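Board notes (copied after class):
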Amino acid sequence: MSPVRKISTNQDELSGSPQQGEPVYLVVGKLRRPHGIAGEMLFEMTSESIQLFNPGKQVYVGDKKNLHRISALRQTNKLWLISLEGVENREQAALLRNQWVFARMEDLKPLSGDRFYHHEVLGMSVVAENGTFLGEV
């Protein structure tokens, strides 16, 4: 499960819930630093959905959610190496350093069983097994 970031056109809005019809984005990773000279970057994946990162898939980078298409992904020791179309050298990759990577919720598969994305439980009541109300998520 990963935190959800909301996009809002109203800067004064404090709610984490999307407005009707507004796309919801899920944090799926973070770009770390350039690797080599061909635009490849170290990538810290926070999503368990590896299919999100197949070549050709779209991701959104940074607070402005700039659209990028994945051209390659390969695993290293603890992180991944990712290449994005149009990012062809170390200097271009450096501009994306430490940026969050998002996917649109509509592009994600639903979680199975008793697993939920964080935004799916926000606002739910928490009740103890004996029925005592404990609060709200």
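Comment from the instructor: The chain has two helices and nine strands. The beta strands are 4-6, 24-34, 41-45, 58-61, 66-75, 80-84, 100-104, 125-127, 133-136.
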